């Protein structure tokens, strides 16, 4: 596989189609139902294959009948190091493939030798697939649960319709949040990158709530900077979010972290701005509810010396003091951080929290700006490229997802040209379309953003 792949709009990793088609059988899956003379109703091909595996001493069979099944989901995760997989080099991403034979759905494990079919977008949601060889893997951590492993397939054409009404043969696959078949992870990753939140563990329902400040001790960021080394307990921080980074996934096969996520917030009060690091399980709980401009009350946090090699974002407001000697850490435990979103109507002028001051520039002004300045742009999308992928490192399975945008603001014959990488906002990134107003705040001017000549 080459270092850069163009990825057409392949749709989600799980289908949402459920349309009847009178030209197919009652499930919309062509040929996926085996009918037996003298029996009532259809027989499940999946059930029959599992019975064959049970009767096989090798726990690996070539099905006596091969019929097409529909692919309902393709889901990715990082498998922890297991004895079966030690011959493979990490990072080792695995794929669970949910299929339907018209009677049952079954979540199957895709043999890693077939991962290239996913990379090339051959094995994808919505296609018809024939399975020529299967095996069974037993998960010692879950007694009595055998996993159907797909060892040899032929991927066919895209189906017109797919029914998702068929039940799972194994009801354990209906758990929420969904769990990968193998390993100890509690969640799946987005199909094409590690930056986007994906699945049911990512909450969105955190709302502002009124807080009684009468008994709340609050410390300024500048005072905390001077005294944190001599403190064991820290008063609350009252800050506004000025910048929110994309998610960072730092999972590795040899680390037993259940939700290995990290994100950075740049927050400020009247005395300065500092980096706040949100760790692990707090990211799925809070990331999608936080946005630039919100006011937060942070309690029971920890403080540590700043990591010296982290690339600091350029200051949003150069007039606010940048505190770079420390970081505020938010964890689910050690200690368990308490985060409260303060409604804007409760924010008092005497708190003097900084306001967001956007610095919009026009396309005609862009040529005269120095490199690496922060600016904001607004305009109409006149071109949106398809999503593309490029490898982060050679011989690795990690990718960057990006697309090219042209934004016109009417001040020049030339548009802004933006290479937009995944921003941990898949609901926006995947649905950008031309002729809509588009605001791209905190737009960094680097050499990669060039003008048309």
Automatic annotation (TrEMBL):
<dbReference type="InterPro" id="IPR012340">
    <property type="entry name" value="NA-bd_OB-fold"/>
</dbReference>
<dbReference type="GO" id="GO:0003697">
    <property type="term" value="F:single-stranded DNA binding"/>
</dbReference>
<protein>
    <submittedName>
        <fullName>RPA1 related single stranded DNA binding protein, X-linked</fullName>
    </submittedName>
</protein>
<dbReference type="Pfam" id="PF17659">
    <property type="entry name" value="RADX"/>
</dbReference>
<feature type="region of interest" description="Disordered">
    <location>
        <begin position="1"/>
        <end position="38"/>
    </location>
</feature>
<dbReference type="InterPro" id="IPR040893">
    <property type="entry name" value="RADX"/>
</dbReference>
């Amino acid at each position: 596989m080459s270092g850069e792949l163009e990825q057409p709009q392949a749709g989600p990793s799980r289908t949402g189609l459920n349309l009847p088609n009178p030209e197919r059988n009652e499930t919309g899956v062509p040929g996926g139902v085996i009918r037996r003379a003298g029996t009532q109703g259809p027989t499940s091909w999946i059930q029959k294959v599992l019975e064959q595996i049970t009767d096989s001493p090798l726990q690996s069979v070539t099905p006596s009948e091969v019929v097409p099944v529909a692919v309902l989901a393709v889901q990715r995760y990082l498998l922890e190091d297991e004895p079966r997989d030690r011959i493979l080099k990490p990072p080792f991403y695995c794929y669970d493939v949910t299929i339907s034979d018209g009677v049952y759905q079954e979540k199957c494990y895709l043999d890693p030798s077939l991962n290239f079919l996913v990379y090339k977008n051959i094995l994808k949601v919505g296609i018809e697939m024939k399975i020529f060889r299967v095996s069974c893997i037993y998960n010692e951590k879950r007694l009595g649960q055998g996993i159907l492993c797909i060892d040899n397939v032929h991927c066919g054409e895209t189906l017109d319709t797919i029914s998702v009404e068929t039940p799972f043969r194994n009801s354990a696959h209906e758990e929420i949040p969904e769990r990968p078949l193998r390993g100890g992870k509690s969640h799946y990753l987005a199909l094409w990158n590690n930056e986007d939140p994906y699945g049911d563990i990512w909450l969105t329902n955190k709302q502002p709530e009124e807080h009684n400040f009468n008994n709340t001790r609050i410390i300024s960021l500048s005072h905390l900077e001077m005294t944190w080394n001599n403190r064991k307990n820290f008063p609350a921080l009252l800050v506004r979010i000025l910048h929110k980074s994309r998610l960072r996934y730092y999972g590795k096969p040899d680390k037993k972290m259940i939700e290995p996520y990290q994100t950075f917030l740049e927050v400020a009060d009247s005395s300065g701005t500092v980096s706040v690091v949100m760790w692990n399980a707090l990211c799925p709980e809070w990331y999608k509810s936080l946005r630039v401009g919100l006011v937060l009350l942070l309690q029971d946090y920890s403080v540590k010396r700043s990591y010296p090699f982290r690339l600091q974002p350029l200051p949003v407001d150069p007039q606010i003091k940048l505190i770079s000697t420390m970081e505020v850490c938010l964890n689910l435990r050690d200690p368990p951080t308490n985060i409260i979103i303060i409604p804007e109507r409760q924010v008092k002028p005497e708190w003097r929290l900084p306001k967001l001051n956007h610095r919009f520039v026009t396309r005609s002004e862009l040529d005269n700006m120095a490199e690496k300045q922060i600016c904001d742009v607004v305009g109409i999308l006149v071109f949106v490229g398809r999503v593309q992928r490029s490898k982060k490192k050679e011989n690795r399975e990690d990718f960057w997802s990006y697309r090219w945008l042209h934004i016109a603001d009417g001040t020049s014959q030339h548009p802004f040209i933006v290479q937009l990488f995944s921003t941990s906002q898949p609901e926006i990134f995947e649905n950008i379309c031309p002729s809509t107003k588009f605001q791209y705040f905190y737009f960094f001017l680097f050499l990669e953003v060039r003008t048309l000549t």
